[in-house]
Structures are given as structure tokens and as C-alpha cells.
Amino acid sequence: GEVAGIEAGIFASLISLSALATWIGTGAFHGTAISTNLRNMALWAGIFLAIGLAYTYRFEFENVKDRFVAALVPGNAVSSIAADGKRQVMVTRSNTGSNQVSASVKDTTQNFIVDTGASSTVLTASAAQRIGLDLDGLRFNQPVSTANGMTTTASARVNSFKIGEIERQNIQVLVAKPGDLRTNLLGMTFLNSLSGFEFKNDRLILTD
Q: How do strand 203-207 and strand 149-158 relate by DSSP bridges?
């Protein structure tokens, strides 16, 4: 129910905080000068105000913290919920100007370069081995065009591919032959599965 128009649980909390403030204030003001009392009162009021603001805006502070971490660690995916309720992931561009993103692939952390010109998501041979793919069992018969010319890759599937809170299961990837590729590429096979993505200033925003 309500007490004096205030929800009962909130009213009870206010009573508890008031009692605590009174008890602390009594101890702080006992046997002191008026000026000291006023200073103590202002101090405790500031402390309670800071605690109240921190609790009230705890979710906003969490977003600020995540954005701060994202700025310090380029490629680190920061998840959030957009105004329309869709899940979003934000990634800050690296100092080199490339859009790098850290993804969890079959419970291993892999770094990718976002490449909208790549039709497929491509793993290096070493990355494929780290996630448990057997290179000897793959057939490198998929022709692809790279900056160094034509080469062949192998088609494979991974049961879990996750960037922040956006996850895809049983996603198809290509595996480069050993020595053909230095960095994993996040291509359109993953990006096309999203409802949208955009490059905004120094950030990449993925929308599920």
C-alpha cells in the first residue's frame, strides 16, 4: 500500500534513513560549537546526497564506466539497450584507425578487423587451431580474392560466435591457409545477420 502518498517500502526506507541521520547527527553535534555543528551538518548532508545520487543513477554510472573502459581499450565491446529495446554493442576504433573488435569464438577470445568489403568472416589458420578446428581435416577449395591475389580457403562452422551480448550460433566462416592471413576478418556473413550497423565518429555500433 501507500503511506501519505508514498509507496510503503520507500516510506519505510525514508524512516530508516532519517533515524540513522538523527543518530549520526546527535553524535556529531554533542558538545561542539554552533559553527562546527553547521559544518558537520553540511558534511553529512553532502554525504547522504552523494549516496542518494549514486544509487539513483547507478545504471547511468554503469554506462559511463563501460564507455570509459571502451575508450581506454579499443576493440572492447560495450553492450547496451537502445531506446527501442534492441541490443547494441559499441566498439571504439583503435589508434591505428582500424575498426578492431574482440569476439568470443567457441569460448576463446579472438581479435578481428571489421571488413565490410569481405563477403565472409575469415579466420587465420592459427585462430582456427585455437578454437579446435582440425586443419588437416579441412578442404581448402574455396577461391577468394585478397589484396595479395587469389588464394583458396576452407569452409567451416563454429557453434558460438559472440560480440558483447550479441551472439550467433552455427555461423559459417572461412579458414585461411597457414601464412595467407595475419588477422581475422569480420565480414558480411556476421554483419548481415544484424538489424543494422554504423560507423559513427570513432565508434562502430552494432544493433541486434
A: unpaired
